[in-house]
Write a structure and sequence with these properties.
Layout: E1 8-11, H1 14-19, E2 27-30, E3 35-40, E4 43-45, E5 50-55, E6 61-63, E7 70-71, E8 78-85, E9 95-96, E10 101-111, E11 116-123, E12 133-140, E13 146-156, E14 161-168, E15 172-174, E16 183-190
Parallel strand pairs: 1-2
Antiparallel strand pairs: 2-3, 3-4, 5-8, 5-16, 6-15, 7-14, 9-14, 10-13, 10-16, 11-12, 11-14
Length: 193
């Protein structure tokens, strides 16, 4: 593996990347993924770690007991909007953080009802409760529509799992399938310091 001092080393694939363990600060370009990477804390980090899903056009109704948390992980609820990149695993009802770092997380959902609702981004929790909540906002809808938003920047560790969840005082909730009204995104910002 060679490059001029301070230069970028070109790697053909994951095998070459795994075989090279330079000091922190080294940079590489993965030709098969068309992405730049930097060595941080003994790990390869890509500034392009990101992914996003948006509300699918499939009609979805969630039924819940009053004020009980429900995960928004139904396979028909979300569709890929921004393919996972930079080592982020594909969305499977949750985002799994690939490397330690600071991340921007955005969640917005829109319900077709005037309800009291809350949405949270959950860390390391498979359960439908408020445990591990790292962000959220309560809101009251008007005009038959409730929109809930959460935008946060968080320090996360590799392996943290981010899930969307909601609760409502209504027994069932239908969700707006209009383009760009509901989404769940993650974007790597910088390494932990």
């Amino acid at each position: 593996f060679t490059a001029m001092a301070g230069g970028v080393v070109w790697l053909r694939n994951a095998i070459e990347q795994a075989a090279w363990s330079p000091a922190d600060g080294a940079e590489a370009y993965r030709m098969d993924e068309r992405s730049f990477m930097r060595r941080v804390g003994g790990q390869w980090v890509s500034p392009s770690i990101s992914g996003g899903v948006k509300r699918s056009t499939v009609a979805t109704t969630f039924t819940a007991s009053s004020n009980v948390w429900v995960l928004l992980d139904n396979a028909t609820f979300w569709q890929v909007d921004q393919p996972a990149g930079g080592g982020l695993a594909a969305f499977d009802g949750k985002w799994t953080v690939p490397v330690d770092g600071v991340y921007d997380i955005e969640l917005q959902v829109r319900a077709l009802a005037t309800i009291n609702a809350a949405v949270c981004i959950k860390r390391n929790s498979n359960s439908a409760d408020s445990a591990g909540e790292i962000g959220g906002m309560n809101t009251v809808g008007v005009g038959g529509v409730t929109e809930v938003q959460c935008r946060t920047r968080r320090r996360l560790k590799a392996g943290h799992v981010l899930r969307a969840a909601f609760y409502t005082s209504a027994g069932s909730v239908s969700w707006d399938a209009t383009a760009d009204t509901s989404f769940f995104r993650i974007q790597y910002v910088e390494p932990l310091r």
